[in-house]
Design goal:
12% strand; 419 residues; six-stranded parallel sheet; alpha/beta; 16 helices; four-stranded antiparallel sheet
């Protein structure tokens, strides 16, 4: 297995947890808001982590980075979230080197998404990289890897139909509403929270229900007003939440709060109410289900809904995987070349030093010394020698051993590459 060393002792890891083994409650404990991510990055820099990116979405929380041991990254996650190491061990995954690279490709291209072909994660990976770079935590390996994943994602999106049809958490929620609420066009819909999922859900509601009686509420009212102007829907103050809940037939909750914002204490209902909680951590207290007429649906349930669109997407997985392998192979070739490049450069410098020393001897010995011819011949010999070493390192079974052997034989000293 390829070992992506930054030093002799670090390896590249992907650690995290996702919807596959961690339910919404557990994912909520390990979720990281904007402040927590910033604190984690500052702590990573202070602790000597040389390169790292962190993502936290409704479906997963992950850290990609170089470390001596994966526990260094696990510690960062647990110390900046509400999760414990013991809880992490129960549901987590840890990938190393090439497996970690492969995992990022599958995540970033939507193949590992809770809803197959949901490409929202790629923008979050981009944002995570930019944030890490601004904190001095994104080296050339990480930049090249993220760019390669973005390239694969774009190619899959344009060359396959794995993302055909609008399918995402927001789309799935709208489909659920349409299928389970009769006469939806005449029902009162309340959307609480206008983050990315909230915005997408609102757009899908307007588009697929032909509904113009949607009410938006957000803690920051101007954000809701901007969306309302675009979609021609109603905005109410956060202070009106309890009153609007009484009027609503359907409530979609998509806030970024770390604790529940809706519980049975504020529900004074006179008719049935469907609540969809699309938030991680959960923003609707489970106690609302004790209120007569309330149905609570969480995003984990929505992701289990399969329809013809999703089934058709599965047919395009092999084509998507082929694209991933192609782009990943280019990335792996780049890492190989980067790994031995410093050694080859140091070898060239050593051979050139030997050449100059020998040419000086010949200049003194031979008054008719042909400087130009000697320079040409010796340079060609050096190039042929280094080409042989390059081919050996590319084709050899153990590049690390080959590099170490060259350095030892020629007594080379150079800065270690990141790889």
């Amino acid at each position: 297995m390829e070992n992506f060393n930054m030093t002799k002792h670090t390896s590249f890891y992907a650690i995290g947890l996702s919807y596959k083994k961690a339910d919404a409650e557990v994912r909520g404990k390990f979720s990281l808001d904007t402040n927590a991510k910033s604190t984690l990055l500052m702590q990573a820099e202070a602790e000597g982590i040389e390169s790292l990116i962190v993502t936290s979405t409704c479906n997963r929380t992950e850290i990609y980075g170089f470390a001596n041991h994966p526990y260094e990254l696990i510690k960062l996650l647990c110390e900046n979230s509400l999760g414990t190491v013991e809880e992490f061990q129960e549901v987590a995954y840890i990938y190393k080197n090439q497996d970690a690279v492969s995992h990022m490709f599958r995540v970033g291209t939507g193949l590992d998404s809770q809803i197959l072909g949901d490409f929202e994660i790629i923008s979050q990976l981009k944002t995570a990289f930019i944030q890490s770079k601004s904190n001095g935590l994104a080296n050339s390996f990480m930049e090249r890897l993220v760019n390669s994943v973005i390239q694969a994602s774009k190619k899959i999106k344009t060359e396959t139909e794995i993302s055909s049809g609008a399918t995402s958490v927001s789309f799935a929620s709208v489909q659920y509403i349409i299928r389970n609420v009769e006469d939806i066009a005449n029902k009162n819909i309340l959307l609480f929270g206008t983050g990315k999922i909230g915005r997408n859900t609102c757009e899908n509601l307007v588009k697929h229900t032909k509904h113009d009686h949607i009410t938006l509420i957000n803690r920051t009212k101007d954000k809701a007003e901007k969306l309302a102007q675009k979609l021609d829907v109603i905005v109410k103050d956060y202070a009106d939440l309890q009153l609007e809940l009484q009027k609503a037939d359907v409530v979609v909750v998509a806030t970024g709060a770390q604790n529940p914002t809706i519980d049975k204490a504020i529900l004074n209902l006179k008719k049935p109410l469907l609540i969809l909680d699309l938030s991680i951590p959960k923003n609707v207290n489970e106690n609302v289900t004790t209120v007569e007429g309330v149905t609570l649906i969480h995003l984990d349930h929505l992701s289990q809904i399969t329809d013809e669109t999703l089934e058709n997407r599965k047919l395009h997985i092999p084509a998507a995987e082929a694209i991933i392998e192609e782009v990943k192979a280019e990335f792996m070739e780049w890492t190989k070349n980067r790994k031995f490049a410093p050694t080859i450069q140091a070898l060239k410098e050593k051979l050139n030093a030997i050449k100059e020393s020998e040419l000086n001897v010949q200049r003194k010995k031979n008054s008719n010394f042909d400087e130009e011819q000697a320079e040409l011949i010796s340079n060609r010999i050096i190039q042929k020698i280094t080409n042989h070493f390059v081919n050996h390192l590319k084709d050899g079974d153990s590049m690390d051993e080959g590099i170490e052997w060259i350095e030892k034989v020629f007594q080379l000293e150079q800065e270690k590459s990141f790889f």
